[in-house]
């Protein structure tokens, strides 16, 4: 099989499909502020780099493959790359969910800003956690580890050999972990502000003539800001623990669809 044969060109194209699907869905790589042309160029460069290390045996696509079979292979590779990228997005969604829970308890949920990463609106605290998560992700070499996982996926899941239906149980576990991450991040706020609301309720029963809403809103906001200042130094270590779980989920997913 020569280097520029039709079989190898089709194989290279399928590699590009999986790589581009991951680049378009994985954290940091799918950043909305990165131009699409840059993402496509990066996917092409990554495909050229991965091409020599992809197992050749069983990877070549026959010349006489039908159009329907080729479309099925493209869809399979597209789903495999997207599934790998969504694993990281679930962890980041958990971080942003924790920020949303904090904002609801503090009273900042009505103040939303545009997320420069996902090009969507969200609360201020969730945006803060999303940006901080990206910084921690890059700091621990998450982009490099993702590329290594992509290269390893070609050894475990050959081209056209992905059984994406087997990823269902893994994604159910990851969706459960999303809520765990969100609640763990927001637990200090939920507990402290619940006790504060309870004290306000008792105070309102003792002094019904007092305007409790006028007192509660600035007080909850001030205590929420103080809590946020207290927990911020510990968030990078917590994010690091969450990202370690990400690599475990990613490894399980690759083996599940093999």
UniProtKB/TrEMBL annotation:
This is Flagellar biosynthetic protein FliR. It is found in: Cell membrane; Bacterial flagellum basal body. Role in flagellar biosynthesis. Keywords: Bacterial flagellum, Cell membrane, Cell projection, Cilium, Flagellum, Membrane, Transmembrane, Transmembrane helix. One of its GO terms (biological process) is protein targeting. InterPro entries: FliR, T3SS_IM_R. Belongs to the FliR/MopE/SpaR family. One of its GO terms (cellular component) is plasma membrane. Its main location: membrane. Pfam families: Bac_export_1. The chain crosses the membrane at residues 6-28, 40-58, 70-95, 128-151, 171-200, 212-234. It is a multi-pass membrane protein. The keyword GTP-binding does not apply.
